[in-house]
Amino acid sequence: MTGERTFLARFNEPDDAVESRMIEELDAVFGHPPRQKLPAGSILFHQNDPLDGILILMEGTVTLYQVIEGKEVVFHSQTVGKILGLLALTRHSRSFFNCRAVTPVTVMKIGFDELDRALQEHSNLLVSFITVLVRSMARRNKRLVELQTEILGLNRSLGQERDALSRTLKELQQAQALLVESEKMATLGQLAAGVAHELNNPVAAIGRAADFVREDLLALAGELPDGEVFREMLERTFRATPFSTREQREFRRLLAGELGDEALAERLVAIGIHQPATYHLLTENLSGTGEETLRRLERYHQLGGALRNILRCGERIAELVKSLRSYARADSTEGGEINVHEGLEDTLRLFSNRLRDVTVERHFGDLPPIQAHAGELNQVWTNLIANALDAMKNQGRLAITTTRLPEDRIAVRIIDSGPGIPPEHLDKIFNLRFTTRQGRVEFGLGLGLSISHNIIARHGGAIEVQSQPGRTEFCVKLPISREAAIIPATIPESAS
Amino acid sequence: MNRIVILCVEDEAEVREAILRDLAPFKPQMRVEAAEDVDDARAVLRECAQDDDPVGLVLCDHLMPGVRGVDFLIELMKDPAYEATRKVLLTGQAGLEDTIRAVNEARLHHYIAKPWRAEELLQVVRNQLTEYVLSTQEDLMPFIAQLDGPRLLEAIAAGKRG
Fold first, then answer.
1. How far is B158 from chain A (nearest CA, A)?
2. Minimal CA–CA distance to A15: which of A79, A109, A88, A111?
3. What does the pLDDT read at residue A315?
4. Interstrand relation of A396-405 and A358-364 (parallel, antiparallel or unpaired)
5. Is the CB of residue A159 less than 8 Å from the CB of residue A41?
6. Which of A114, A409, A479, B89 could form a Cys-Cys staple with A405, CB 3.0–4.6 A?
7. CB neighbourhood size of A408 (10 A)
8. With bands split at pLDDT 50, 70 and 90, how would you rate the model's confidence at A473?
């Protein structure tokens, strides 16, 4: 081995210089072996072919590839280097890649055995050969690192696509949930309207029957001696508003003190007689005995009270039926002229069982009829009032304010005295939020509000919310006339 | 003699009147009182206490303005003066959760769902009052005609009281 041509010294030489020297030395050792010329596209060797030598690439370019799942995957093209069949040197003489000429190529073949011998005998050749070999390996190694980096990048973009897909899927699920909910509301509305309609006849019949019974009883009483007194008792009880239980106990106490008879006082107060004078007047002017008269008075009092209760309860049912019908009418009328206050009142009436401990304040302004879908707006009022009552736990103050705004718009404000909505939730409160828990879809505040948001948007209106502890206001602004055609439902962006 | 009190707590006047009418057969032996809300019911309890009339039965609606029926029954349970008082819910609107609380915390004795039938209501009141007199009264004889006669006679025969 000559001193100045050390292995390490060659590290500073450019690649082509080292490669040219190796070829010169190979030519010198092997006596200029024959060059082989191959056209572009030629396969120089296949993967796993047994190789008995290496090929030195003199001119042109080749590509090294493998076929993976039916596809050509290129591992090296720029990074091939001058020595082909390089890995075969270390791999039981079988090629690791397929090798194809990209351009016309010129190669020189050297058998493993003769190469081996020459490398043992010619240290110069050994040094150049190993230098070229190391540089080829280094280049290929670098290429592998680049491939790895490419894979990382691909994985990243795959991940992004997967995230985008799952977002889309979630949006689709939310859209479906909205549709299902709307469909359910529509079906319920039809059912309610049907039931309400069916209830009308029996309710009307109950009311009429009570009237008939009253007329007949009054006629019968008229035939009795002192009939006028009993007729009066029945009519008075029928028309009177009963005293509260507190008042009754107070009357009883006073009357018992005056009469000195607790049992009698109890019976008299029960039939609405609070003054000893009234009682004495009655008994003095009636022909029967005291007990007989009292019993008859009690009967007529009870009859009057029962008839009053039948009629009053019938009226309550009739009102509920009316509210239910106009509430559910909704789905049959497609955007007529509606009275906003009627819709609000109907909705409030249907919530009456939750309003027992709620002070409802109505500040209704002078509103013109507006062009809107009555049933859909009722759904909005229902959602907003239900949320308000939920927030207040059915106790507190519910204010409903309606005002006419400039530019032919109206505003309906629903204000509750609940604990308020945390500021961090305010901006996404109209977004859809639902979670799946144990396979069940659970809806929170989000669905009702996002349905309301959609309905209002379709009407060309807007909904806003302001909240602080003790006062949460939802303000719905709607145009009086709906020029624009119905805008298809939009789904607000999900809060992710 | 002091009368045993039946207290009916119901906020709707029409319903209250109907219950009172159904309870009329217990008068005048029992003192039948009505209250339209829990505050009023407390006032009735105070008046009865002043008169030394023991409260045998509270028949209570659940959904009322102010304090709910179940909470009133729980409040009663915590007061030793009303430990023996029989507690009955008569309601159409107590949910499962409230009913469970009534059973566990107020030791509810009976639940009657609205709409009720008069015979059912009378039967429940009769049975509950029978339990009440059995556990509180020395002399059972006066109750034989109005409450569960055979049961009371059995108790008397067994020599417990009478």
1. 36
2. A79
3. 87
4. parallel
5. no
6. A409
7. 11
8. very high
Q: Which residues pair with A443 in a beta bridge?
A: A434
pLDDT (tens digit per residue) in A238-265: 988 888 999 999 999 999 998 888 888 9
**Alpha carbon distance B94, B106 (integer Å):** 14
B37: closest chain A residue by CA: A245
For B48-142, list the strands marked E by DSSP.
55-60, 86-91, 110-113
* Amino acid, single-letter form, for residue A119: L
ipTM associated with this complex: 0.82
Which is it for the CA torsion A37, A43, A47, A52, positive or negative? negative
Mean pLDDT of B114-131: 94
Compute how many other C-beta atoms are within 10 angstroms of the C-beta atom of residue A10. 18
Which chain A residues are closer than 8 Å to B13 by Cβ? 242
- Judging by beta carbons within 10 Å of its beta carbon (0-12, 13-18, 19+), is residue A250 exposed, middle or buried? middle
Q: Compute the average pLDDT of residues A338-364.
A: 89
Residue type, A285: N
E strand or H helix that includes residue A230: helix A227-239
For A470, the 3-state DSSP assignment is coil
**Distance, CA of A432 to CA of A491 (rounded, Å):** 8
Cα–Cα distance between A359 and B160 in angstroms, integer? 55
